[in-house]
Design a protein that fits this description.
The complex is a heterodimer of chains A (482) and B (284). By secondary structure, chain A is α/β, with parallel strands linked by helices. Chain A has helices at residues 57-75, 80-96, 98-109, 113-132, 161-174, 189-200, 215-222, 236-246, 271-283, 303-314, 335-350, 382-385, 401-409, 424-433, 466-471; strands at residues 21-22, 24-26, 29-31, 38-41, 48-52, 147-148, 151-155, 178-182, 208-210, 229-233, 252-256, 262-265, 295-299, 354-356, 372-375, 392-398, 416-420, 438-441, 460-461, 474-475. In chain A, helix 14 links the parallel strand 17 and strand 18 (438-441). Chain B is of the alpha/beta class and 284 residues long. The termini of chain B are far apart. Classes of the chains: A alpha/beta (482), B alpha/beta (284). Strand 18 of chain A pairs parallel with strand 10 (272-280) of chain B.
């Protein structure tokens, strides 16, 4: 038995007490939805988790109506200090039910329990805790006369279902808005568990409404005439259509879209940390991260040694059961996503890249993709330009800092970037010249509710986190939309 | 016998130069009473694209200039504006009508607004940025950076100088470069303003001014992939919804029409991007 062969250590599902079917959470209670119901499955083995009723246009109207009533009659009149207390309550209940939420998330999304337990759920709780304290301090947000916007329509992706929910709901409520949130089609489970948390916190009915559904539900929601704010996290393609749909309205819009982040490794980098950081950058959450470091730029003189050490490290990644506490890389979220990863990776090989992946057994059922390295990638390859959103790292080289900066910025996106170097002045200088909303130096994929997150260019606009994350949900003194 | 005046040829301002429209087109600019005043350049799609190219070329140096340098360059514009005060008053009176006092009031407001914005160049990052107390061993800093190339439609039909200043100043103070469509009816103060810019140490291409029809030029700028932000402040009377829709294609940031000409820090903020940098503090 090598040191890599661990005994299975699955987290128990006994902590879950799931319903067979979930309705729409509107006006403080679960109600029937009239759209086509959807079955959520575990991407790790294809097994059914539960049925989720979805919202048709009338249901969307009902949800927005409930949010509007709650805004007009309760939430907009409540002192900020009272709103704060509700948000602190929610943060505490998320913490109390953390293990249950982590198991549910790993089951529904396919990501390792290690991540949901240590990252997704604690970060979600932290987001509520941070924004709770803002609710009675809006006058410090940097606006002359900050006011809530009204009803926020929020559409979130499947890669961090509960965490994205927290990123959306916490600042919206702190700023005094009410919300209608649509979780992703493939990952509605934790959002409906969150509805229970909202009930346990005794939040006034209609302040938070959660409606499951596919793309058409999302479009009906953001296009609803009584919505004042639209917040979307997802693909750039959908972001475009949302920006078009919101054009000409008074709706304030924030978009957090795709990325093709560059992780730049200089030849003087702290190499052990850099290898770890590159692995975290692309294999965290199976690479299904908008800010993933999916383009590795290595200084030419360090390329061979670095790739060799990276491969050695990748051979120790444990791919398999998301609920196993030793798992590093879990399942791909859906068949559709797996197909896209396979298609793009094959295109990379067709265009001349060399593909390498560690030997590892993949489960027979479910959606799986090996952690993959593509070397010999050139900037014109599709795998250097398009977001793969999977555990696939495209490796390129550079000679000078100027070339690294030019290559890193050579993308229509601008969400994230990483810099690995022991030379402080070089790190500062390169960070200064990267056109990206988040730059990690000698680290990667770190998130915090106090730290603004969001993109340049086609990665979207507006910020989540910190004070900018709050003002995304406030009107300024003139009441102009954006 | 009285001396014959020398009328000025009003052209566009692109990349620090004053070219005619490549289309060869001009249009009649008339006084408030309807009398002929000048033939202004009627900018074309090609001119708009040239202006975007000039603005893009100027972005790296202008956004990379020190903030103290930008303050001084912008303040210098106010100095030169002040020296041409009478000229602007005359142009505004001729084109917009009204009393000398109201024209003077507009010019004074424009100059004072410019000075107000100039002083923000070395302060906005302090006020909008932050040091973020993250839960870990990281030095975490957020700084606002200029968005890039901003296409702007200046207010149309009134306040030809003040409206122009009210859109240009908050955009360039942070380091953006701009392509502005001047007030179609009264473009002369805009071109005189361009002469001020050209003689005020502002690098070529930071400010580019087109004259002609915002209805014609707006769609080209809105859909241009190298335009990062679209300022529709003065587009209230146009079909601005189509412009916002066109801008969606490349996720261009859009400021909807307000007609509001007051100075505000938020107007600087909308043309900035927050960059957050995490520095590891645990590798020792």
């Amino acid at each position: 038995m090598s040191f890599l062969e661990y005994a299975p250590a699955p987290e128990s599902r006994a902590i879950l007490n799931l319903e067979d079917s979930y309705g729409l959470f509107i006006g403080g209670e679960l109600t029937d939805g009239h759209g086509e119901p959807l079955e959520s499955i575990s991407p790790a083995d294809g097994s059914r988790i539960a049925t989720f009723q979805t919202a048709d246009a009338d249901d969307v109207d009902r949800a927005v109506g409930a949010a509007r009533r709650a805004y007009d009659t309760v939430w907009s009149k409540m002192p900020g200090a009272e709103r704060a207390k509700y948000l602190f309550r929610i943060a505490r209940i998320v913490q109390e039910r953390a293990r249950e939420l982590a198991v549910a998330e790993s089951l529904d999304n396919g990501k390792p329990i290690k991540e949901t337990r240590d990252f997704d759920v604690p970060t979600a709780a932290a987001w509520f805790f941070y924004y709770a304290g803002w609710a009675d301090k809006l006058e410090y947000a940097g606006l002359t006369n900050p006011r809530a916007l009204g009803v926020a329509a929020q559409v979130i992706p499947w890669n961090f279902p509960l965490m994205m929910l927290a990123w959306k709901i916490a600042p919206a409520l702190a700023a005094g808005n009410t919300v209608v949130l649509k979780p992703a089609q493939t990952t509605p489970l934790t959002a409906l568990l969150f509805a229970e948390i909202v009930q346990q916190a005794d939040l006034p009915a209609g302040v938070v409404n959660i409606i499951a559904g596919a793309g058409e539900t999302g479009h009906a929601l953001i296009a609803h005439g009584d919505v004042d704010k639209v917040a979307f996290t997802g693909s750039t393609a959908v972001g475009r259509s949302i920006a078009r749909s919101v054009a000409g309205t008074k709706k304030k819009l924030t978009l957090e879209l795709g990325g093709k982040g560059a992780n730049i490794v200089f030849d003087d980098a702290p190499i052990d940390q850099a290898v770890e950081g590159v692995v975290t950058g692309i294999f965290f959450n199976q690479g299904q991260v908008c800010c993933a470091g999916s383009r590795l730029l290595i200084q030419e003189s360090a390329h061979d040694e670095f790739v060799e050490r990276l491969q050695r490290r990748m051979e120790t990644l444990r791919v398999g059961d998301p609920l196993d506490k030793n798992t590093d890389v879990g399942a791909i979220n859906s068949a559709a996503q797996l197909a896209r990863i396979e298609e793009l990776t094959a295109a990379g090989v067709d265009e001349g890249a060399v593909s390498w992946a560690p030997e590892c057994d993949l489960p027979d059922e479910g959606f799986w993709f090996r952690p993959t390295l593509l070397t010999g990638v050139s900037t014109s390859h599709r795998v250097a330009r398009e977001e793969i959103f999977g555990p696939v790292l495209s490796v390129m080289t550079f000679r000078t800092p100027a070339e690294a900066i030019a290559k890193a910025n050579n993308t229509p996106y601008g969400l994230s970037a990483g810099i690995w170097s022991d030379k402080g002045s070089r790190v500062l200088s390169v960070a200064d010249k990267l056109r990206a909303g988040v730059v990690w130096t000698n680290t990667f994929n770190k998130f915090d509710p106090t730290s603004p997150f969001g993109g340049y260019r086609e990665s979207g606009y507006g910020r989540e986190g910190g004070r900018p994350g709050l003002t995304s949900y406030l009107a300024d003194e003139k009441g102009s939309a954006k | 016998m009285s001396r014959l005046q020398i009328p000025k040829t009003y052209k566009q301002f692109i990349g620090g130069k004053f070219p005619r429209s490549e289309s060869g087109r001009t249009y009649r600019v008339t006084s408030a009473e309807g009398e002929f005043v000048a033939n202004a350049a009627q900018s074309s799609r090609k001119d708009a694209r040239d202006a975007v190219t000039a603005a893009r070329s100027a972005f790296a140096a202008w956004s990379g200039a020190t903030s103290y340098n930008r303050v001084q360059v912008l303040y210098r514009i106010a100095e030169v504006l002040e020296g041409r005060r009478t000229q602007f008053i005359d142009e505004i009176r001729t084109l917009e009508g009204g009393s000398a006092a109201s024209a003077a009031a507009q010019v004074d407001r424009a100059i004072d607004l410019w000075v107000w914005y100039a002083g923000w160049a070395d302060k906005y990052a302090q006020v909008l940025g932050s040091a973020n107390p993250v839960a870990g061993p990281y030095f975490n800093l957020s700084v606002p950076e200029p968005t890039g190339v901003v296409a702007q439609i200046a207010p149309q039909g009134s306040d030809s100088l003040l409206g122009l200043v009210a859109v240009i100043a908050p955009a360039i103070v942070s380091g953006n470069t701009v392509v502005v469509i001047a007030d179609e009816r009264a473009p002369l103060p805009a071109i005189s303003f361009a002469e001020v810019v050209a003689t005020s140490d502002v690098p070529d291409g930071v400010v580019n001014i087109l004259t002609g029809s915002a209805t014609e030029l707006g769609p080209w700028l809105a859909s241009h992939a190298d335009v990062d932000a679209l300022d529709l402040t003065g587009a209230g009377s146009l079909d601005w919804v189509a412009l916002e829709e066109a801008a969606a294609e490349t996720i261009t940031r859009v400021v909807r029409p307000t007609g509001d000409l007051h100075g505000s820090l938020q107007k600087i903020a909308v043309f900035t991007e927050t960059k957050t940098i995490w520095h590891t503090t645990s590798l020792i």
